[in-house]
């Protein structure tokens, strides 16, 4: 989502398009620090790499000192539901997980996936086995995107209850980031409601 530039310059399908290309590495950093580490890793990788960068300034919330292509990072431990995020959505999930714990006694595991392709399949399966419920959040089309890549792994190896949160079959539009997130269910309160309803 690129806020106020209009629907014609929104690119919400990029992840789906790029992950379909053979041998393509697809990366989405969560913050500026990770983007720097990611750039260094890309320089040493011989495959073509695609990076999706957010336009808006985002909080610095990741503390890792290294970055490895294809590896995910568990940021919060939980047992009731696994929340998988990529890019700036991971921070939203962390805030939602805190609210879920404080207000609903729901303990959510939050895992950050800066690499969408190749996906950390072991992390997906381990979390699904542990929690038996998975929710993904992404700032783009859910069709063919990050959530779809997770669904492919689960459907072939460990079918569990799953929900994808993101843009659902609509074109991009102008607006404040907070307004667009709310419209597509990506703000913290909407994510919390989705998790609570999903687990009922």
TrEMBL record:
Residues 70-191 form the Transketolase C-terminal domain. Gene3D superfamilies: 3.40.50.920, 3.40.50.970. This is Transketolase C-terminal domain-containing protein. It comes from the Bacteria. Residues 4-58 form the Transketolase-like pyrimidine-binding domain. Pfam families: Transket_pyr, Transketolase_C. Signal peptide: none annotated.
